[in-house]
Amino acid sequence: MRKQFVKTVEAVLKNDPKVVLLLGDIGVWGFNNASKLYPDRVHNIGILEQSTISLSAGLAMNGLIPIVHTIAPFLVERSYEQLKLDFGYQGLGGNFVSVGSSYDYAALGCSHHCPADVPILKQIPGMEIVLPGTPEEFNDLFLESYGNGHPTYFRLSEQKNSESQKVKFGKATVVQKGTKATVIAVGILLDRVLEASKNLDVTVLYYTTLAPFDSAILKKNCPSNKILVCEPYYKGTLATEVIDALAPRPIKIEFAGLPHKFFTNYGTASEHDKFLKMTTGDIKNKIKKLING
Amino acid sequence: MESATTSGEGHIPSAFSILDILWVLYDQVLNIDPKNPNDDKRDRLIVSKGHASLGIYAVLAEKGFFKTSELLNFAKFNNSLGGHPDRNKVPGIEASTGSLGHGFPMAVGIAMALKIKKNKAKVFVIIGDGESNEGTVWESALLASHHELSNLCCIIDYNHSNDKALKLGNLRKKFESFGWETRTINGHNHKEIYTSLSTLSATRPTAIIAETIKGKGSKTMENNHAWHHKTPNKEELESLLKELA
């Protein structure tokens, strides 16, 4: 997804003179060419994330469209108050593109993990949250929304699905229709959810935009009132959205997501998936349990 | 003072600390039209120490950005003038501030945006000495210097109220070492304020260390920490207004 990010941003820099790219001293090599072409609009701003977010709000106040890019915990958690006040409260538009989602940087340890980005960003009114499942989906979603005047978070992952879906900002997609349960797959978990749902009578909904949440599609596609939410960050994050979408129907809701704890192992992301029960088999077991429960 | 008494809210001494600076800015320095406060060519002022909102409101009202009668609705439920300023509610307010350490980097971003757009307007930002404890102040000082933002002027309201917590030492030398053009002035002397604000560096950002007195103008409040976030009752107001007169 990172290679696509470079291509996509190079294109918007070329076509839109309002776009300004601020890199937190990562991905700089990839943007060498853009930096030469647009030296006043591409900056390796340094390792000072809080000020970078405020600075980008200053750009937005004057009609420019900032894109800020760095590693998830530093972009979101370290700069949370700046995102909340300078963008959320002030009603400014900007784009915040992270890498290193959840435990993508497994071997680097807890300082570089960020399973709380989506849960905490959800608490900022007006913050848009986008989790593409493939590079192509990132391109489509970014081009559709980068200049919409709202603060938007894009979570790039080192993992990706095998095929792209036809995605639209703010809308979910029905990927499979069934009657016994509805499974929500967020971003990069779609491949695992589809494999786990094979030969099972369940609906699969694919979400790449989490905020604003497409509640209409869930309302129309949940005949069983049983829902499994598969989310690649701290589990339970979408609970309120699901409950609100289906209210006042009595529902049964289960989650396949990350437990609320620090992940103190190293190794690889797939080792963490196994350890934290986020594999295809784990998801399949949860679906079966939900259907039969 | 009347606004604070009516609402029971407000940081009066913090406002008095920068009142002379605000007045000189709006009276003699800033190129801004109160009837067209969003004109792209306007100079920008960001009051990063947002708790001094009473000061900026009083000057904006006096200069015609909104009616002076609005001041008596300060901090009321449905009014636009809050304890900290909101850019989406108050004409002339450039940035919503309150949490310290946000306004300065936003001002850096505004200055950078104007440079990108080849807009000749200037950007002024007022920060507090207490606010200068925040890391983002020094991050902003680095950024502005690195990007040679000669269209940016940072005024440090050095009233020393923060010395009790964290001594800042020689702020002039500190800003100098960050690559800024620096000056020290008496922050209550209008001539000194005007001269320093109207002769900014042409090649790098300018920092003005304004030596000020918190609560300036009221002997009761001057450097009296008890009044930091205290509002007068009716009897106290009467006595305080006499001091000002």
What features would you describe in this structure?
The complex is a heterodimer of chains A (293) and B (245). Chain A has a seven-stranded mixed beta sheet, with helices on both faces. By secondary structure, chain A is of the alpha/beta class. Chain A is globular and about 60 Å long. Chain A has helices at residues 2-15, 32-37, 49-61, 72-77, 80-89, 117-121, 135-145, 190-197, 215-220, 239-246, 269-275, 280-292, and strands at 19-23, 42-44, 65-71, 94-99, 128-130, 151-155, 173-176, 181-186, 202-207, 209-211, 226-234, 252-258. Chain A has two domains: 2-155, Rossmann fold (3-Layer(aba) Sandwich), CATH 3.40.50; 173-292, Rossmann fold (3-Layer(aba) Sandwich), CATH 3.40.50.920. Chain A is built from twelve helices and twelve strands. Chain B is of the alpha/beta class and 245 residues long. Chain B has one domain (2-237): 3-Layer(aba) Sandwich (Rossmann fold). Helices cover 35% and strands 12% of the residues of chain B. Chain B contains eight helices and five strands, in the order ααβααβαβαβαβα. Chain B has helices spanning 2-7, 12-29, 53-62, 103-116, 135-146, 171-177, 190-197, 234-244, and strands at residues 44-47, 123-128, 152-158, 181-186, 206-211. Chain B has a five-stranded parallel beta sheet, with helices on both faces. In chain B, strand 2, helix 5 (135-146) and strand 3 (152-158) form a beta-alpha-beta unit. In chain B, helix 2 (12-29) runs parallel beside helix 3. Chain B starts with a helix and ends with a helix. The mean pLDDT of chain B is 97. At the A-B interface, helix 3 and helix 5 of A face helix 4 and helix 5 of B. Chain A: This is Transketolase-like pyrimidine-binding domain-containing protein. Chain A: Residues 1-164 form the Transketolase-like pyrimidine-binding domain.
Task: Furnish the topology, listing elements before pairings.
The complex is a heterodimer of chains A (293) and B (245).
Chain A: H1 2-15, E1 19-23, H2 32-37, E2 42-44, H3 49-61, E3 65-71, H4 72-77, H5 80-89, E4 94-99, H6 117-121, E5 128-130, H7 135-145, E6 151-155, E7 173-176, E8 181-186, H8 190-197, E9 202-207, E10 209-211, H9 215-220, E11 226-234, H10 239-246, E12 252-258, H11 269-275, H12 280-292
Parallel strand pairs in A: 1-2, 1-3, 3-4, 4-6, 5-6, 8-9, 8-11, 11-12
Antiparallel strand pairs in A: 5-10, 7-9
Chain B: H1 2-7, H2 12-29, E1 44-47, H3 53-62, H4 103-116, E2 123-128, H5 135-146, E3 152-158, H6 171-177, E4 181-186, H7 190-197, E5 206-211, H8 234-244
Parallel strand pairs in B: 1-2, 2-3, 3-5, 4-5
InterPro entries (chain A): PDH/Transketolase, THDP-binding, Transketo_C/PFOR_II, Transketolase-like_Pyr-bd, Transketolase_C
Organism (chain A): Candidatus Yanofskybacteria bacterium RIFCSPHIGHO2_01_FULL_44_17
Domain Transketolase-like pyrimidine-binding (chain A): 1-164
